[in-house]
């Protein structure tokens, strides 16, 4: 009986050790207030579909979207800024990256992109 208990305790200890040694899940990309992920490759796919981007445009936009994601993540993690300072810096970053994105687009795509941005800014209608 004591041997069975010792075996059971040993198995439990080994199982707990293996669980602790297991790799941690990958960090998921940050999300916006409305739940959209800041995943540059997903954003590029969405933009490609909506704006009919060429391969050349996609190759130009991916580094811009990646840089934006990195800078926004760094900003969210910067605890030295007040909420107001963080919002102001985020606004400046968004404007800067929007101008970089628009520089890659043709006139028709710029109009569509601006419409997408305006639609995103509109408050959601409540279902009540």
Give a quick rundown of the structure.
By secondary structure, the chain is mainly alpha-helical. It has a domain at 36-121. The protein has helices at 2-21, 40-51, 55-77, 83-104, 107-121.
Structure overview:
The chain has a domain at 36-121. Helices cover 72% and strands 0% of the residues. It is built from five helices and no strands. It has helices spanning 2-21, 40-51, 55-77, 83-104, 107-121.
Short key terms for the protein model shown above:
72% helix; 128 residues; mainly alpha; extended
Task: Provide the fold topology.
Layout: H1 2-21, H2 40-51, H3 55-77, H4 83-104, H5 107-121
Mean pLDDT value: 78
Largest sheet: none
Low-pLDDT residue spans: 19-36
User: How many β-strand stretches?
Assistant: 0
């Amino acid at each position: 009986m004591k041997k069975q208990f010792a075996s059971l305790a040993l198995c439990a200890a080994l199982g707990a050790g293996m669980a602790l040694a297991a790799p941690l899940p990958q960090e998921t990309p940050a999300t916006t207030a409305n739940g959209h992920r800041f995943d540059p490759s997903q954003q590029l796919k969405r933009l490609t579909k909506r704006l009919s981007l060429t391969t050349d445009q996609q190759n130009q936009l991916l580094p811009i979207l990646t840089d934006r994601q990195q800078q926004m993540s760094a900003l969210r993690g910067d605890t030295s800024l007040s909420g107001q300072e963080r919002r102001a810096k985020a606004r400046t970053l968004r404007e800067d990256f929007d101008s970089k994105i628009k520089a890659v687009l043709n006139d028709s795509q710029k109009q569509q992109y601006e419409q997408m941005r305006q639609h995103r800014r509109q408050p959601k209608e409540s279902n009540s």
